[in-house]
Design a protein that fits this description.
By secondary structure, the chain is mainly α.
Amino acid sequence: MEITEVQKAWGEKIRRLRRDQDLTVTAMAATTGITRQYLNAIERGRYAPSEVVRARIAAALGVELSEIFNYDLQDAS
C-alpha cells in the first residue's frame, strides 16, 4: 500500500497529540479499542483508519475530528 501524504499528515498529527498528552501507544490503543500495532501503523501513515476508528481516536485525544483529519497539508509541515 502506498503511503499518501494525507495518511502521513494524519499520523504525524495523531502522534504529536498523543505525546503531548503523555499517552503511550498501548494506553491509547486500549482506549480506542484497536491494537497497538494498528495504531502504530496509523501513526506511521501506513493505514488510513476507518470513520469509526477516526472518531475513537479523536475522542481518546479529546479533540474534534476536524482537528486531526480535515486540514490543509501545508499546515502539516
